[in-house]
Design goal:
The complex is a heterodimer of chains A (356) and B (105).
Chain A lengths: L1 H20 L5 H45 L14 H25 L9 H7 L4 H4 L14 H49 L31 H26 L5 H51 L15 H20 L1 H4 L6
Helix pairs in contact in A: 1-6, 2-3, 2-7, 2-8, 2-9, 3-4, 3-6, 6-8, 7-8, 8-9
Chain B lengths: L3 H16 L8 H27 L2 H12 L1 H35 L1
The chains are: A mainly alpha (356), B mainly alpha (105).
């Protein structure tokens, strides 16, 4: 009778243990969540930096014009004319920050690896299997006269399966809900930032000025944008700066005493600015593509989580995928983009005042 | 009424006309007027181009609020994890009780 009772208990715990083992985070999904979080974080930093560098390019163009007026004996208006208001920048920083917090929370909630993020949520999740259980030792329990050594060990181990059984299914279902709920906002955020980057020229004779966040992301490349946004502003700033340098060159040629080295410096500066203009526009275009890829990557994540934990495809509009692995493609593109953008965006930081 | 697109076209034409000016034939005062005109046209162009960005600022706020709604879901997971940890402690107690029962059998 006693042996039968003990076996029953043992079978029960072993079942829970085996079930618990199957419930932990899926390593493939953990990798995807980590990749997308890293990509979103890098993307947010790069986008924010683009607003900064656009403002710097604008300021450099104005300074060059004003300095030349001073050099010619004029007294120009030196009132500072910023492009973006503090309110405009704060609204963009808030959404970029919300995207970063979202992705960090996702990592913390789903991952239970020891190198997870440092926020409090992850600390609690990382503590699973629960600390009190993980400290259990077979020696603490005097069951030797009832169970042999291996049976005792199995009994203790099964408790970690029991703890997973209590927590993971509830958590995974909630993560699916969060992913599905957040997706429309991720898509709208990407659309808004994409439109902010804009275009350096009108894309048709009847381009659209009044575009909003409700643009479908997979149709965004087909939009006929009007000249404007950060790319338009950057192009105008570089063009204006180049124009002033060309005037400087004409004036240098009028003055016979101007040293050849000065003319060389001006020509060098013209080349650098022209190159910077092309590189910046290309970088912002890549950023627009990365924003679209972020949405595709997130959509892939929603689908993968839904299939694994909810047993169905999420109620999201299907998007055409250009890649079998949009998450890896997104994180790889952003990594490359953020490195080149960082080097390029330092242009105005290293320039001397007279060169601006 | 002039559309934004039309306004931009006019401003670009004005800028191109100024850009074509040969400064070598201009007296100093005219050079200064040219530079000032270029600055004014440039600022007008930038104002037009930035307008499409600033018009979206309010929309950013709404989307940000929507995205922040996910935080309540993450908070729930955090609370469950805490609660599950407490359950783990309870199970620990149960096991010790079970150990006692088994030792008496």
């Amino acid at each position: 009778m006693r042996n039968r009772f003990l076996k029953l208990i043992l079978i029960l715990w072993t079942q829970l243990f085996l079930l618990g083992c199957a419930l932990g985070p899926d390593p493939v999904l953990v990798a995807q969540v980590n990749n997308i979080a890293r990509g979103i974080s890098d993307l947010a930093i790069t986008v924010d930096r683009k607003y900064d560098v656009t403002e710097k390019a604008h300021r450099a163009a104005l300074k060059n014009n004003i300095n030349l007026q001073f050099e010619l004996g004029g007294s120009p208006d030196v009132t500072r004319e910023d492009l973006f208001t503090l309110d405009d920048r704060a609204a963009r920083r808030a959404i970029l920050s919300a995207l970063q917090v979202y992705s960090t929370n996702l990592v913390a909630a789903y991952s239970d690896t020891t190198d997870s993020t440092e926020i409090s949520l992850s600390k609690t999740v990382k503590a699973l299997p629960f600390s009190s259980l993980s400290n259990l030792k077979v020696e603490d329990f005097d069951v030797t006269h009832s169970l042999d050594s291996s049976q005792s060990k199995e009994l203790i181990s099964s408790l970690s399966g029991f703890s997973k059984f209590l927590f993971y299914p509830k958590r995974d279902k909630k993560i699916v809900e969060i992913l599905i709920g957040a997706h429309p906002f991720i898509e709208q955020a990407a659309s808004l930032l994409y439109l902010d980057m804009g275009t350096p020229k009108d894309q048709s004779e009847n381009c659209d000025n009044s575009l909003r966040a409700d643009v479908q992301i997979d149709q965004i490349f087909d939009l006929q944008l009007c000249r404007g946004g950060a790319r338009g502003v950057m192009k105008a700033a570089i063009t204006s700066n180049l124009l002033t340098w060309k005037l400087r060159l004409q004036l240098a040629n009028l003055n016979k005493s101007t040293a050849a080295s000065t003319r060389n410096q001006i020509v060098e500066r013209l080349y650098d600015l022209e190159q910077l203009g092309r590189q910046q526009d290309h970088s912002m275009k890549m950023l627009q593509e990365a924003l679209v890829k972020m949405v595709l990557a997130h959509h892939q994540l929603v689908t993968a989580f839904s299939e694994k934990y909810a047993g169905k495809i999420p109620p999201l509009q299907m998007v055409e995928r250009s890649s079998p692995d949009p998450v890896s493609e997104f994180s790889a593109q952003v990594e490359s983009l953020s490195q080149t953008a960082k080097r390029m965006d330092a242009f105005f930081d290293t320039s001397t005042p007279e060169n601006n | 009424m002039t559309s934004k697109q039309e306004a931009m076209r006019i401003l670009q034409e004005a800028r191109e006309l100024l850009d074509q000016q040969d400064v070598s034939i201009l007296p100093n005062a005219a050079k200064l007027r040219l530079l000032e005109a270029q600055r004014c046209i440039y600022l007008e162009i930038q104002e037009q181009q930035v307008q499409s960005i600033t018009e979206r600022t309010e929309e950013y706020r709404m989307v940000t609020e929507g995205l922040k709604e996910s935080e309540s879901g993450f908070r729930a997971i955090h609370d469950w994890a805490k609660s599950a940890e407490q359950t783990g402690e309870a199970v620990n107690g149960l096991l010790r009780g079970l150990s006692l029962i088994l030792s008496l059998l």
